[in-house]
Amino acid sequence: MTIKDSRKLAGAWVYKHLQGANKQLPDEAIGTFAKALLIAAKGDSVLSQDERDWVIGLTAAKGASEALLAELETYSGDEDIESLLQSNPVSNKSRRNLIYTAIQASDADGTYNEGEKAAIRSIASKLEISEDVVAELENFYQKEKELFDNKISLLFPDGIV
Question: For the whole model, what pTM was predicted?
Answer without folding.
Answer: 0.88
